[in-house]
Amino acid sequence: MTSFIKELSFRWSDLDPNFHVRHSAYYDFGAQHRIEILESLGLTMKVMQAQHFGPILFREECVFRREIKLSDKIFIHTKTSKMKPDASRWSIVHEFLNEDNKLCATITVDGAWMDTKLRKLASPTPKIASEALNIFPKSENFEGL
């Protein structure tokens, strides 16, 4: 597997006054896809609550290349682009590709795991989090941190 892939379904509320997908909807789609992937890898919200940790973001950036309209067929491709060996810090990339496989946008997020009791970075990284992120497909230019 080269990335996790999902076809997106747009709603009227995802549009802006110019009739293309509003900038903040991209971030919502990226966040939803990350959570769906983690859930599919066994890292569910219930598990994170029971073990008192969760993902946090330090940076989230979107680069827009082509507008996306309501009826466009768009696929989000998700993979890791950077990660420490223990998965304590990581970067995930979401690419929004149209049906012609042309890049419409790229979201990059940099994150880590937080201990929700201590409200600090989790140390050590919870084993289940490390296992889940190590299953993630890696980008072509993956970089170990």
Automatic annotation (TrEMBL):
- InterPro entries given in the database record: 4-hydroxybenzoyl-CoA_TE, HotDog_dom_sf
Name the Gene3D superfamilies for this protein.
Answer: Hotdog Thioesterase
Pfam families documented for this protein: 4HBT_2 (PF13279)
PANTHER family reported in the protein's UniProt record: 4-HYDROXYBENZOYL-COA THIOESTERASE FAMILY MEMBER, LONG-CHAIN ACYL-COA THIOESTERASE FADM
The protein's name is Thioesterase
Q: Which organism is it from?
A: Flavobacterium ranwuense
